Amino acid sequence: MDKRSSRPKITLGIDFGTSNSAVSWAEPGGTAQLIALEGEALSIPTAVFYNAEDRRTHFGRDAVAQYLAGTEGRLMRSLKSLLGSPLLQETTEVNHQQVSYHDIVATFLAELRKRATQALGVAPTRVVMGRPVHFVDDAPERDALAQQSLQQAAHDVGFEQVSFQLEPIAAALDHERRLTRENMVLVVDLGGGTSDFTVVRLGPERMVRSDRSGDVLATTGVHIGGTDFDQKLSLEQVMPLFGYRHLGPQQREVPSGVFFDLATWHLIHWQYLPRALSQAQGLRVNYSDPRLHARLMEVLKQRHGHHIAHMVEQAKIGCSQSGADTTIDLSVIERGLLAPMRAAELQDHLASLLAKTVACARECVQLAGLEDGALDAIYLTGGSSALRPFQQALQAEFPKVPMMEGDLFGGVASGLVYSRS
């Protein structure tokens, strides 16, 4: 018998993210360990690709690679964005069959559970799911529905005990394991779809307490994240090449709906439908420059939308990390077509989104009733928190507070298993 099968009941922590997901596990009283989900990678893109050629379903990096290689099929990303939306109960066509978006979310969760089972040698039945402070801003009923939908999907794939923890609190509990003294910390969790903040009192003596509710001084959140940054950069840097803000014969801008959808990952595929293609073709009369319209139609007819979105995301990351200018190669649409991504413009393009995000951080500290001097640290987690313009904006708001990066992609998952009941 495999010794692993005799382990005490374990708990999984699943950080189901808009862009990436991670899974951890721990035995009762044990230390959290991340599970390798794709090769040696400890996180996996939240992506599902339904291959129309071999009828297989692909996940993560494999899913994105299949799509970008030109394999015929349907790529689904930003699945978390569907939670709390009426769209979740609707169906979409996948390989000539109608599949509900709820079932697509469940399919991805089932794959996470399957990979965890393979790694652990036992099928876990208990899970703590991460959730943002707000799935949906200013809509409590929809927010509650989002959690209920995620809980139902978890039950559907075999989890018997499902509980939830706020993602920034989970990150705090992970960070706490490395502290040697009590700290007052502003935890900043920037993911693909949300930005969440928590002011929490942490420390080795507090870590052993069963009730930590008194240590959480305030939580705030706003529905802004990496996908919103990508959308904005796409609109500013790429979509003008296809007619966004282009003035037509009557000096009126080309209707912008198609460009916003093309810049929003989970809406792109709608622009490939016959009705959308017909509407886009009808925009020709709104253009003064026919080349721009021809490019737009090439993108739609050849289904290059997700490829463009992927390149924008990669250019953003590269530009932020290096601080150097880069370009987005659009020669697949038109020979020699390039879109610049300039480091100096990154801050300008994202200024309004960054201001709202930083304002949410400030609100959290105010709700906690603290002055900046009472904060020992700002703790960053979530992939989007690595964005240099964001870090600069946050440091400018809290100039005297030390800022540190945690495990950007695995910290929340690890902390989830420490919050189990």
Which word captures the global form?
globular
- SSE class: alpha+beta
Number-wise, the strands total 18
Question: Span between N and C termini?
Answer: 30 Å
Helical fraction: 25-40%
**Main sheet, how many strands, which sense, barrel?**
6 strands, mixed
User: CATH topology of the largest domain, what is it called?
Assistant: Nucleotidyltransferase, domain 5
What's the Cα radius of gyration? 22 Å
Briefly, what CATH class of the largest domain? Alpha Beta
CATH superfamily of the largest domain: ATPase, nucleotide binding domain
Q: Work out the count of structural domains.
A: 3
* Number of contiguous helices: 12
Architecture of the largest domain, according to CATH? Answer: 2-Layer Sandwich
Mean pLDDT: 92
